[in-house]
Amino acid sequence: QRLLKTTGGVMSLQLILLLALTSRAAGLSIPLEGEMPQPPTIISHTSSPVIAFPYDSSVSIRCEATGNPPPEYRWTKDGQDFTPPQPTTTKTGSFVVYNKQFAQFQGKYRCFASNTMGTAMTEEIELIVSSVPKFPKEAITSIVVNEGDPIILKCNPPEGLPPRQIHWMSVDLQHIEQDERVTMGIDGNLYFANALQNDSRQDYCCVAAFARIRTIAQKTPMIVEVKRSNLRYYKHVLSHLSVVPALNMSTVFHFSPTPQIEWMKMGGSLAERAQFDKFGKMLIISNIEESDEGKYMCKAKNPAGEAAHYFDVIVEEPPKWLTEPPRSQLTVIGTEVHIKCSVSGKPPPVITWRKNGEIFRVSPSNYVLDDTVELHNASPEDSAVYQCEASNQHGSILANVNIMVMNMAPLILTKNHQYDVVEGGDIILNCSVFGSPSPETLQTTEGERYVLHQNKSLQIFRAEKDDSGQYVCVASNSEGRSGLTAVLDVKDRTKIFNPPQDVQVVSGTAAQLMCKAECDKSLQDTFEVMWMKDGDEIPLSSKETSKYSVGEDMLQIMNVGLSDQGMYTCIVRTSLDEDKATALLTVLDVPDAPTNLELLVLKSPKNVRLSWIPGSDHNSSITEFIVEYEESQWEPGRWKHLQKVPGNQATAELVLHGHLNYQFRVYAVNTVGPGPPSEPTETYKTPPAAPDRNPENIKIQGHLPHQMDISWEPLLPIEHNGPGLEYKVKYRRLGVGDEWKEHLVKRHSFVVRNTSTFVPYEITIQSRNSHGWGPEPKVVTGYSGEDVPTAAPQDVAVEVINTTVLRVSWTPVPPATVRGHLGGYDVHWVRKRSLLNLNRSLDERQSLSFPGKRSHAFVPGLEPFSEYRLTVNVFNKKGKGPNSDPVTFNTPEGVPKQVPILTASNSQKDSVFLVWGPPPETNGILTGYLLQYHLINETTLEVVDSQEMNITGADTTQWQLQSLEEHSLYRFDLSACTRVGCGPSRAQESYIATQTVPALFNISSDVSDTFAKISWTAREEQQDLQLYVAYMNNRDGNWRISEAVNTSQSFHIIDGLKPGTVYTVRLMAKRLLDNGSIFEGVFQTRMKGVASTQRNLSSQGWFIGTMCAVALLTLVVLIACFVRRNKGGKYAVKEKEDLHPDVESPGMNDDTFCEYSDSEEKPLKGSSACSLTGNDAIGDGVSRDSLVDYADGGGEFSEDGSFIGEYSRPKHRGSVSEPSGPGPVTA
């Protein structure tokens, strides 16, 4: 806004500063308990102004209030009662104006909300209907001026909804160029300080743009004609000023030539916020302050003189609250009430007081004093909504003040009586109270951790477990007393006890960050874990393709890249608290490629320095740089290693070869690996030169006795340094004064023929090309061809060290007979026979070579108690010399090897039966066995007592050991002995205890592809005994033992088997594999395809009939065999076993777990122990019968999976038969 006053011909200007206008209606919070009344409070209304645009379909004007009873609404428009056309709801005072009604509803509105307690009102809400601005129609005449005269093109833009932007354009919408001479003023006119000839045109258009209503208006084009004339000096001053939201002062000087503009503030300096526009003609001061008030001057200068213009700036402001709007009050009957409306503004605002929306009427007890309403000896009739409205010409502010005059006993408003807090946290126990007069609260807690606030709430700092319990809040006033009981539960803190640790990972791998936490058990349902990276939450997904996954107190990041590096924070939280821990994830990656490779020639073209700038090391220090080269002549496109450079160095001096076109590149290496190579350098060409070196690795060999073969490692193609490479070979005999002989060759080998056998030569090889010779070569020495030795060692003698080691000595052959480089000596020996069996010839040959010049050697690995023959010969690279005269000797007797097996079975009250096999090698005359047995403490597994006994007789392979302690664990050690001593022992443990072995018969199996059913029949008096079923996959040798099975069950199912696999099964009285088994057999599971085929066949009638006939025939054959056996087969077996005892009877590991592994100490598969009676006297003769009875049976698998015996040395087969007498026969 502007206010212009003309005083003494000088223009004076008053500037108004408009500040933001806010309206606040402070409400009094009174609880709505039951029917307690509450005055209305405006909670929401539309802010003024409301602008209705032409493209709006409707405009909504809101007004909403609270109160008890619910308020009713009424409206005024321009001070008159108004009935809204379209109320939005019955619960609010809002209404809608539609587009067609915009014009008739333009005006200023005010909303009133009333109930029995009073009336609240809003500030004025102005509805402005925006019209489409248009330029007025007018006759435009041409403007004709002389060159140098000023020009003013008036725009006179139409008024419209701000902001409004004005542009001067041509008809084809090109902007008119503006500068110091041509400027658009704040009023929109285009000012020419002086006219020029090229200002003449017929399409000066003023365009006004209104962005908010999306409208552009254009004025009729104006014509300007500038006539040529003599330029003259001219000056004239025009001034403009614009205000809101910034102060814009503009002065237009009509000068010729164009003047220079200068601004200043009289009596002070321009604010730092001051800016210049329009080529210095406009001064803009943003965010106007009161200090900007004063007099401003604008001065213009040119050669014709100078001119000045002055502005008086006055800063004003709309009303505003000095502190805050007046507060609502609750007071007691008979008190003094003061409602103060403290406002400021320039000019000073006028304050209007209202009561329930009506102008406040003064009375002897209620009157207005300055900005305050005073109510003396207040009564309930003074309860109302008072309005304070302050206004000046720049705006107004309004406050609704609820005044309640009443007496009331305390009323507890707090609903929540249960509070939870974690140990160490702070908690506030609320006790919101309403009453008049204001209630007092009784505080019963003491201590620095307890604070009672003015709002009657109790705050507890750093809560402890002992703080849990009940708290009582008591409020009272003159009208009565009320109380509240609150319950506080102090819970365990949520804390991270295993936080994530800083970690370094290699790019492309997975990173794992641990975060283990604990919380109070009652908060477990609200416990959650969240991960953040660099302050941003990490999105977690259950999809397998997700980069992040959380599980088992761990965040896993898959395929880590450089972008995953950063600070990771684990946040564990419950509904009450949280804890967090942070760790740094550092990603290691290969280094980036070096850049900026440059070559610098040093002493010669073949000596250059390569430099580069290293790339990023990606958190792993560069250990080295690798320089590679590629040359285009010999191997184009292949990059080769040239030089390594330490990681702290970025240059390399390179020695190059001649006559090549080089390119170089570099890559860096760190602990992660090699990085990518750099871009290659430009091609660098070296000139040709003589070879830099001679051939190396010269080899002189004699493949034939009378020639010498010379070969060497040729120069690499890149080492030729030029064309025409060849080698000069020179040689002569060493030490005889011969002349050098030389040859030029292009290959890398040369043969000297007709030489003496094995004589020394001196040889040199020098390289050359068409540009010269290589360096002077070194002399090497070699020998001509070798031949086989001609002499045999003499004086061969042997010395027997022990049963297996021998010392051989001899006289070396003369060096001249070697006829080559001495390789060493060969010792050959033949075992002719064992001294245990002189009639058997063995002829076991062995030999050893001993390199170098020597006269003796030690020969190991001999067999004891044997006869040997030995010879020695010399050898060189060409071959072996003749053998020496043979020497014959005998090795002494030794100790036997370990017995192959030892088993302890048939454990009784104080005895055990031991069975073993003879040693595979006696190494002498076997005299007997040494048996040591040790009593073992079952708890500490230490030896309590030890005894030993000698068992004489080489043929003894079993022993009944007596006088042992019952229910004790023993370890038995057995060694075989000769006259020299006893060999290594074999150990076996056994538990000494009497056991009742169930007598079973009719043992059978029913086998499928994945399970086997083992069935049996037990005697009536043994129906309640226990047995164990063990089975083993014959491929892996691991035993598995079932839990105890009652014999009355009559079957046990083994499942989880593999199709087409052979298994061994045992029925045992104890869950120990070292006990003799009741039964042992072998079965094979079916193949899946075979099983299905059999089921299909078995459903056919002809198949069932055939199988019945086969079963009947088989039964007849079995009966015949059984009758034959009972006639005396058993005694024959017993006699047979006495002659050939089974040295490999069952022996098991004393392990009680469900898996066992076979070893060489275990008994042969398929053995079984049988019982003829159910009493304690289980004769080992019966057991041995069962091992031999079926030795002649075949062992074939059948498709029905029946048991098949599988034994070796000799093979035994278990079979099942029906009993033929009173006692059962078991297999």
UniProtKB/TrEMBL annotation:
Protein's UniProt name: Cell adhesion molecule L1-like b
Species name: Sphaeramia orbicularis
SUPFAM superfamilies: Fibronectin type III, Immunoglobulin
Phylogenetic lineage: Eukaryota, Metazoa, Chordata, Craniata, Vertebrata
Matching SMART domains: FN3, IG, IGc2
Fibronectin type-III domain mapped to chain residues: 593-689, 694-787, 792-894, 896-999
PANTHER family: NEURAL CELL ADHESION MOLECULE L1-LIKE PROTEIN ISOFORM X1, PROTEIN SIDEKICK
PROSITE patterns: FN3, IG_LIKE
Keywords: Cell adhesion, Disulfide bond, Immunoglobulin domain, Membrane, Repeat, Signal, Transmembrane, Transmembrane helix
Similarity comment: Belongs to the immunoglobulin superfamily. L1/neurofascin/NgCAM family.
Record carries keyword Cell membrane: no
GO cellular component, one term: plasma membrane
Single GO molecular function: cell-cell adhesion mediator activity
Spans traversing the lipid bilayer: 1102-1123
Pfam families attached to this UniProt entry: Bravo_FIGEY, fn3, I-set, Ig_3
Gene name as annotated: LOC115422881
Membrane topology classification: Single-pass type I membrane protein
Broad class of where this protein is predominantly found: membrane
Region (Disordered): 68-88, 1140-1227
Signal peptide: 1-27
One BP annotation, GO: brain development
InterPro entries, sorted: FN3_dom (IPR003961), FN3_sf (IPR036116), Ig-like_dom (IPR007110), Ig-like_dom_sf (IPR036179), Ig-like_fold (IPR013783), Ig_I-set (IPR013098), Ig_sub (IPR003599), Ig_sub2 (IPR003598)
Ig-like domain boundaries: 40-126, 133-217, 221-316, 319-404, 410-489, 494-586
Compartments where found: Membrane
